[in-house]
Design brief:
The complex is a heterodimer of chains A (362) and B (142). With 362 residues, chain A is mainly alpha-helical. Chain A is built from 13 helices and no strands. In chain A, helix 1 runs antiparallel to helix 7, helix 2 runs antiparallel to helix 3 and helix 9 runs antiparallel to helix 10. Chain B has 142 residues and is mostly helical. Chain B is built from 4 helices and no strands. Chain B is extended, with a radius of gyration of 28 Å. The chains are: A mainly alpha (362), B mainly alpha (142). Chains A and B meet through helix 2, helix 3, helix 4, helix 5 and helix 6 of A and helix 1, helix 2 and helix 3 of B.
């Protein structure tokens, strides 16, 4: 490979210029539309962008141990990323809006593949369902409103295609340049070795996770039983799991395993969460003793369980995606959920009010 | 374990493509789809950061973005319907008449290409048996 082609700055500039020029040629306009040349240039731009990512940052999906990469997931990433960008270009440059809507459906499917790679199965399903509906509605609108035969102003003219492509791709080039600057690895060879010196990995290891998961399960068992003895036994077990998590016999305690300075915001957040968990645990312990106050004890165990879910989600995403998103939505983001519901209601009322014919009673 | 920068680059590319579409295209429906493309780029960024930090907050934010996109779709399509009733066109350039006073309108100078005058008819395949050439010519002569 030529050494000039592996220069990241040159690659960024080349990708932006090729993409912008190709998009300019592809955008519908009465003069200077050259479809085959535009397709070739945009494909070359996407290729150079992929080359930049590959030479600068290595493979997209690393294996769970951190050495080497996951070949299947990486191949899937390249596939979906290429699909999303190419169909996005088709959507933007297509003269026929109905075909544009179909290209948008393919963009949605490709980005949903990326969502799965990002461990978001719930959002993937939600996006497919919501956008599939939205695309069908858009499609109906296209069929209903846009029945022009032959060239028309709205489909065959664009507003300032040259300046628009320039603005868009100068923007993309600047973003890529910022990515290039912000990445910690100076050499591409190091990119796969240590991914994140900027951000520490979670200090929780396999053993910690096992103890935390056990504690969550025991809390669940305790809360499922109405009998006091049946409640007390698993709750006590959960407390002892947490005890061995906080003070392991064979290793350093979890607070001291955070290798980086306490001034690091992520580490200090982790410490604060650890303190919160210890506090919840100490809330539960006296309530399980001789003093029998069942409602208080249940409330404390429930609080401990909620704290555990949030805490053990720290570091790696929990496998129970839907349950944990639901928990997050209705605990930490309750106000935002209410706001979103209100927004939807207001938007529905507004849409009805706008689309209603004047003079015709609703 | 993911490499964050790859996903950020894909999000940036989608956002840029959608930006170009929104700035240049004149069909209201295509403009709307381009805006949705930009939102998809943003959601990819949110999810990538969430996965990278091991926090579900990114996915929750993504869910809210989808909610806002749904509101936007409803309102935008209602407005398109109203604009279409008034102007019988989806061209955003028709609405220059609501520009500020003192700003000259943007006029399209280059004419659109004409549709070809000759209507292209479909070619039908020959069906049935060809008539015998000799008898055919005799009968036509009579």
């Amino acid at each position: 490979m030529q050494p000039a082609l592996t220069n990241p700055l040159l690659q960024i500039v080349l990708a932006a210029i090729l993409g912008g020029a190709g998009l300019y040629l592809l955008l519908p306009k009465p003069k200077f539309r050259w479809v085959s040349g535009g397709i070739a240039l945009t494909l070359a731009g996407i290729g150079v962008l992929g080359l930049f990512l590959w030479t600068r940052f290595g493979q997209p999906m690393l294996s769970s141990t951190g050495d080497g990469f996951d070949p299947i997931a990486s191949a899937l990433f390249w596939f979906f990323a290429t699909g999303a960008t190419s169909f996005g270009i088709v959507l933007v440059t297509q003269r026929n809006p109905a075909r544009g809507a179909i290209a948008f459906a393919f963009v949605i499917i490709s980005t949903c593949g990326l969502f799965l790679l990002l461990a978001a199965p719930f959002l993937m399903a939600a996006t497919i369902i919501i956008y599939a509906g939205a695309i069908i509605v858009t499609f109906l609108f296209v069929l209903m409103l846009s029945h022009v035969k032959g060239p028309s102003d709205e489909n065959d003219r664009t507003r300032e295609p040259l300046l628009g492509s320039l603005a868009g791709f100068a923007f993309v080039g600047l973003l890529l340049f910022t990515l290039h600057l912000s990445s910690p690895n100076a050499t591409p060879a190091a990119a796969n070795e240590s991914l994140d010196p900027l951000l520490p990995t979670s200090p929780l290891d396999q053993n910690d996770r096992r103890l935390l998961t056990n504690a969550i399960r025991q809390c669940d068992e305790a809360l499922a039983v109405t009998d006091w003895n049946g409640f007390k036994e698993p709750a006590t077990q959960a407390i002892s799991s947490l005890d061995s998590f906080f003070a392991p016999a064979d290793r350093m305690p979890v607070e001291e395993r955070t290798r980086l300075s306490a001034a690091d915001p992520k580490v200090s957040l982790f410490r604060k969460q650890t303190e919160m968990l210890a506090e919840r645990k100490s809330d539960v312990r006296p309530l399980l003793g001789a003093l029998k106050n069942e409602t208080e004890a249940r409330k404390a165990v429930q609080a401990l369980r909620n704290e555990l879910v949030v805490y053990s989600g720290n570091g790696k995403l929990p496998a129970r995606n839907v349950a944990n998103i639901g928990f997050m939505l209705y605990s930490e983001h309750l106000l935002a959920v209410e706001m979103a519901g209100t927004l939807l209601l207001v938007a529905t009322i507004g849409a009805v009010a706008i689309a209603r014919r004047k003079g015709v009673p609703a | 374990v993911i490499s964050l920068w790859h996903f950020l680059a894909v999000g940036a590319a989608l956002f840029g493509i959608g930006l170009v579409g929104f700035l240049t295209r004149r069909n209201l429906i295509t403009m709307f789809l381009s805006a949705e493309l930009m939102l998809q780029g943003v959601v990819i960024n949110l999810l990538a950061f969430g996965r990278f930090h091991g926090s579900l907050n990114g996915q929750v934010f993504g869910l809210f973005v989808v909610t806002v996109a749904a509101c936007e779709a409803g309102l935008a399509l209602a407005m398109f319907l109203m604009l279409y009733r008034r102007g019988k066109s989806l061209d955003s350039g028709d609405w220059q008449s609501v520009r500020e006073s003192g700003i000259s309108p943007t006029l399209d100078t280059v004419p659109l290409p004409e549709m070809s005058a000759v209507e292209i008819l479909p070619k039908l395949p020959v069906a049935g048996r060809l008539p015998d050439q000799a008898t055919f010519q005799e009968t036509t002569r009579v």
